[in-house]
Write a structure and sequence with these properties.
This protein is an alpha+beta fold. The chain has one domain: Cysteine proteinases (Cathepsin B, Chain A). The protein contains five helices and ten strands. Strands 3-10-6-7-8-9 form a six-stranded antiparallel β-sheet. A two-stranded antiparallel sheet has the order 1-2. Strand 8 and strand 9 form a beta hairpin. Helix 2 packs across helix 3. The radius of gyration is 18 Å and the shape is globular.
């Protein structure tokens, strides 16, 4: 399903992988659709935005709903202390516990369904409780916190 020749030199392909995984379309088809609508950029530091993922799903005739997980509110200030040739960061203050679900917790809580999960700077797919990261099933426990989840389904005709 993933054409290694197509992707070997492309930046930011995680969103494309996630869409291909949840829709069952070939990677090449997802890449072509995303580029046709301007949702994917082949430049260094390129890739897909959150809205680009949603627009590509729409162009592939899939419906999606999303849930945004809020980051905790941070209270306090960062102070930088110069004590040597490097600046060390010291945090003073309090913070709320981050209650957003981890990848592992989300997969456990959602044993059925197809989701595209956004973590900081990356997208992964969750299909029937299995995390798929860049086309491979992730074996390790996912401790990264989820920023948003997009449930994906094919609308009935």
């Amino acid at each position: 399903m993933y054409d290694k020749e197509v992707i070997k030199d492309l930046p930011g392909t995680c969103g494309l992988y996630a869409i291909a995984a949840v829709t069952g379309h070939s990677y090449r088809k997802v890449l072509e659709e995303a580029e046709n609508i301007g949702a994917y950029k082949r430049i260094k530091g390129g890739g897909m935005t959150y809205s680009g993922v949603l627009r590509t799903l729409h162009m592939l005739h899939y419906d999606a709903s999303r849930e945004i997980f809020e980051s905790p509110d941070w209270a306090g200030t960062y102070n930088f202390a110069a004590g040597s040739s490097t600046l060390k960061q010291h945090y003073f203050g309090t913070y709320e516990k981050d209650t957003r679900p981890t990848l592992s917790a989300f997969a456990k809580d959602n044993p059925k369904g197809r989701f595209i999960l956004q973590v900081r700077g990356h997208y992964v797919a969750c299909i029937n409780g299995q995390i798929r990261d860049n086309g491979r099933v992730r074996i390790k426990k996912g401790r990264r916190r989820i920023k948003s989840a997009i449930e994906v389904w094919k609308p009935s005709s």
